[in-house]
Write a structure and sequence with these properties.
The protein is of the alpha/beta class and 333 residues long. The chain has helices at residues 7-15, 81-84, 96-104, 124-131, 133-142, 144-169, 190-210, 227-233, 248-255, 278-292, 311-327, and strands spanning 30-32, 48-50, 57-61, 65-68, 112-115, 173-177, 215-219, 237-240, 260-263, 298-300.
Length: 333
């Protein structure tokens, strides 16, 4: 089938509410761009490294990537965060003009520049990076004002970084992640979310929306109770939108192309079972696309997670990608 839109143009049409020429994919032509001077430089041969901004001890988890070192958290008492969390020196040392020129000089213009200025992984997740999940959740309940004070400090850094990022890198879209849900429910109540986290997300997102960019939000797990709030903030898309934990046909019915579903694929389900056959997996790819692609507002994003050296996983991902390619043209006239 002849196409006229590049992958980049097709994805941008979809995320901006239009019906694409063919089903876009969430990866591929998309390539996150990041200010190199603000990136963590882990030694690929080391299992442990220090977080670039705040000195958070980290370890490399082979199936997912870097995580905070268990039982070695930087912040023990939320009331003492000012003694621990300081403005990173790099903010006052980096040459934005030289850095952006170097980062962008050989970049393929057909790759979608997605990203955003951020000193860490969202706001809820940064709190857990500093304290661990248990202490972070206790702090939210016992010292909400101190939690807000710390997160507002992070917000101000992100706004400063983001404004420079917009000026020097000129991204095509904004991407924000903050995994505030597990597989059964959000980690916090809606009341707590609206009191503490929603204002951070909204203010952080506003500078990109004011610049006219589409925005995509990442949240794993059972995030549906909060979907209406990211729509109100102006987010155009949500990933990975896991179908086991969320009623995705309901999301499409409620929001249409106002909120694109980017993913819609259960990576931890049947596709990862050893007894699943190639036909099972290919059939699941078609089921996801048949359910979510009609009418637009969907970008396919599927794969099996796990150790990248596992040849079984690599083979399954090849089946998934091949089946997507075979079916991506059949949904739109």
């Amino acid at each position: 089938m002849a196409t006229h839109l590049s992958e980049k143009e097709n994805f941008l049409r979809m995320i901006n509410g239009g019906v694409p020429e063919y089903v876009p994919r969430t990866l591929g032509m998309r390539c996150g761009v990041r200010a190199s001077g603000f990136s963590r430089p882990p030694d690929p041969n080391a299992m442990e490294f220090t977080d670039f901004f705040f000195g958070i001890p980290m370890v490399m988890e082979p199936n997912s990537g870097p995580i905070p070192k268990p039982n070695d958290f930087l912040l023990k008492d939320i009331r003492k965060w000012r003694d621990v969390v300081k403005r990173p020196a790099v903010f006052d040392e980096v040459d934005w003009e030289a850095m952006s020129k170097k980062d962008l000089e050989d970049r393929d213009p057909e790759l979608l520049k997605s990203g955003g200025g951020s000193v860490g992984n969202g706001y809820f997740m940064m709190l857990t990076y500093f304290m661990g999940f248990n202490e972070a959740l206790i702090a939210i309940m016992e010292e909400p004002d101190e939690v807000k004070a710390l997160l507002n400090f992070i917000l101000e850094l992100n706004l400063e970084l983001g404004k420079n990022f917009l000026h020097w890198y000129k991204p095509d879209m904004y991407h924000m992640g903050d995994d505030i849900a597990h597989e059964r429910a959000p980690f916090v109540s809606e009341e707590v979310f609206l009191d503490i986290f929603e204002p951070m997300w909204r203010q952080n997102t506003a500078i990109y929306k004011e610049a006219g960019l589409p925005a995509e939000h990442h949240n794993c797990g059972a995030f549906y109770p909060f979907v209406k709030h990211i729509v109100n903030m102006g987010f155009n898309a949500w990933n990975p939108a896991q179908p086991t934990f969320n009623d995705l046909p309901r999301v499409k019915a409620e929001y249409g192309n106002k909120l694109a579903i980017c993913g819609g694929f259960e990576s931890n389900g049947m596709v990862s079972w050893e007894q699943s056959t190639e036909d099972d997996i290919r059939g699941y790819v078609r089921e996801v696309m048949d359910t979510l692609a009609p009418g637009g507002g969907f970008a396919f994003g599927g794969g099996v997670m796990g150790n990248r050296e596992n040849t079984n996983i690599a083979e399954r991902n090849e089946w998934i990608n091949d089946e997507y390619e075979k079916n991506k043209f059949k949904y739109y006239a």
